[in-house]
Design goal:
globular, 2 helices, five-stranded mixed beta sheet, mainly beta, Methanol Dehydrogenase, Chain A, about 425 residues, four-stranded antiparallel beta sheet
Length: about 425
Amino acid sequence: MTIWRNALVFSLCLSGLADASDWPQFLGLNRTGTSAETGLLKSFPATGPKVLWKTPLGTSMSGLAVVGSQALTLFQDDTQQYAVALGTDDGRVLWKTALAPAFENGMGNGPRTTPAVADGRVFVMTGEGLLAGLDAASGKLLWKVDVPQEFGGAAAEYGVSCSPLVVGDLVIVQAGSDSAGAVALQCRTGKPAWKARGGRSGYASPVLMKLAGVAQVVVFDAAGAGGLDPQTGAELWQFPFPTEYDCNTACPIQVGDNEVLISAGENHGAVILQVAASADGLSVKEVWSSLGKDSQLRAEWQTPVVLDGYLYGLDNSGSAGPITNLVCIRLSDRKTVWQKPRFGKSNLILADGRLWMTTMKGELVLVEASPESFRELGRSVVLETTRQAPALSAGRLYVRDDQHVICLDVRAEQ
């Protein structure tokens, strides 16, 4: 009965998001940075991918969610932070909703999170931690909650970057309180549903997984990782992983039926955790680690991706330093099979057997996702400095910087 219940819960958790061609939240449909789309470019034309449209927007570190005919993101001007919906066909502004005063921070101004779209609603979180629910069709503000204030917490030092996770009829975020490190609010009303796992916020976004046959939300905060029951918030397991400056930023990523990888920069490293079920509940143990200045993987703010038993990720060498290597790690024995030294600070998603990467120099880089060797397939300057991972939907790649949102046609046949 327990296994059946968890299978049903997991199915219900995913049912409200979107169809397979959409990119409805941070890092896509399953928050793995992976798309099932095929028929995409295998290299770039000499002039780079075709630009379908380019819409000016203001300052932001937010990524994009794409559902149906809307591309959604956050930005700010000199006075306000906004949620905005752009038409996927032409980039025109469909609606724009003011959320809070402009956000300033020593590590960069503007909102940091990516909207989540489910059941006709959009859920957004501002730089200081105001969570809001909006009507997707009109942008009408349905409710908003100042999460740190409501739950007695504090916003993360460098700004709130936890993108909302929708699980069934709940929206889940970090709250940064001693009594409520993670919280769930009702999607319809914004009223609290549960609170759990007290402690300071990190910068990672929660991820829905099924580990050891149990549906759970894996949270990665300042203290470490933990699994929570999606419906009640009950803590199922926890693993300490404190990092200097609380910089646990990359999302946890499932690397096996019962295994999850967590990684952090600041020369911290990575571990793989194995979750097991018994009559007493779930337990967790470390089954691999690579820590310190010689670690194989120190994911600073870029979540790795997995394909056919291999992990592709960005390894940041040093304490927030400029040296970032692109690595491929075989998960069966956790060996690094190749490394591209000094690839550069970037972000990545996976689609059609290739890594689609945006660099802080404004380049779009296409890399073959193969364990054989590093092979670059294309490189083109398409925007200004960016930290956002691309979003992919229906053969269109969406990227953004502090100046524009850009839609690129990346279909192989155009």
